[in-house]
Amino acid sequence: MAGDATLLVRSLRAALSDKRWDDAGTALSHLKLAAPFDPEVRGLELRWLNDTRRTQEAVELANVLVRDHPSSAGIQFQAGRAAYAAREYESARSRFEQSERLHPSRWSRLWLGKALTQLGRFGEAEPLLLEAIEAGLDAELDLAWLQERKGDVSVALATVERWVARHPGAEVGERTRERLKARVIDPKVIVDEIEQLEALGEALPEHLLPRYFESLLETAQSPRARERLRTMKLSERAAIQIGWICRNHEAADLAFEAFMRGFKSAQNNAKFLMTIESLARKLNRVADLISTYAEHAPMNPRLYGRKKALERSVSRG
Fold first, then answer.
1. How far is residue 269 from each of residues 1, 63, 86, 186, 303, measured CA to CA in Å?
2. Which end of the chain is less congested by CB atoms within 10 angstroms, N or C?
3. Which CATH number fits domain 37-137: 3.40.1390.20, 3.40.50.300, 1.20.200.10, 1.25.40.10?
């Protein structure tokens, strides 16, 4: 790599480390002109796409780079991050494991722990997250998520409390703490608190809405949950979270409606698409899902194939 390009690489790495995304993008543009095929440059481009949450672009570039540079630990790691962001957790796991084989790193082990948590492989994930915490990495919220997934909500809350004590005022910690506190409160209390806030015209805390719907289902208020889902203002993210809760409580019709409300934000998640298609078949709502696929396919061409598959299943009866 020429001297000017080497200086640009240093500049790009510094900008990425300092989270100066615009400066990093400028340096990257110059680098791609100076050394367009250099694997280090392509790897840094992938890191920039990951850091700036350009998930679809990152996934597409990752697939190319893993094919062309399979022995690069850095590329395997960044490809794993792209897959993780796209919720392709099995692919993420494979890439983090390959990165760790090529060049052992506390970062690859941390992210492997995160991917294994999402796959429900808690026994393998927990030692990796604990190791990351011991190494000084910020992994306590990841550990709390694992503990919550295992059903140890009180333990998860204690873990989050420790994190919040060291990061006072951090919004993500405060939201997580409030959500976990809601998990250990009687469901009837949650329902009453949310509906009292609404009656007073107060803004509803979005991070508690999934627990509100879960509480309605736990207290045999499915009709109320159905009515609230129809009338309540929800973000796409909250709608998807509520959809998973409804599915886990075997409220298929509510899950489908919630998933349809949040479809745009989850349309690149393979597990989500398989689940909503299964629900559509179960509820005889395939035609509605085909229409939704047709609406979003111009911006997400991969939906064309799924739309055609659904149409074939309908024609076969």
1. 38, 16, 6, 33, 11
2. C
3. 1.25.40.10
pLDDT digits (tens, 9 = 90+) for 209-228: 998 999 999 899 999 999 99
Tell me, rounded to whole angstroms, the distance of Cα 18 from its chain centroid. Answer: 24
| pLDDT higher at 313 or 256 | 256
Could you report the per-residue pLDDT of 111-134, keeping only the tens digit for each? 999 999 999 999 999 999 999 999
Residue with tokens 């298609």: 277
Contact between 251 and 222 under an 8 Å Cβ cutoff? The reply is: yes
What is the C-alpha to C-alpha distance for residues 187 and 178, in angstroms, rounded to an integer? 14
- Evaluate whether 37-137 and 187-315 have a shared fold: yes
**pLDDT-above-70 percentage for the chain:** 99
- For residue 183, what pLDDT band results from cuts at 50, 70 and 90? confident
Is residue 57 packed enough to be buried (19+ CB in 10 Å), middle (13-18) or exposed (0-12)? Answer: middle
Q: Contact 130/109 with Cβ under 8 angstroms?
A: no
Task: Judge whether residue 1 has pLDDT over 80.
Answer: no
By residue count, the chain amounts to 317
Instruction: Please choose, from the candidates 76, 71, 85, the residue with its C-alpha nearest in 3D space to the C-alpha of residue 107.
Output: 76
Rg (CA), the chain: 22
SS3 71: coil
Instruction: State mean pLDDT over 42-54.
Output: 94
Q: Are 311 and 305 in contact (CB under 8 A)?
A: no
Distance separating alpha carbons of residues 34 and 6, to the nearest angstrom: 10
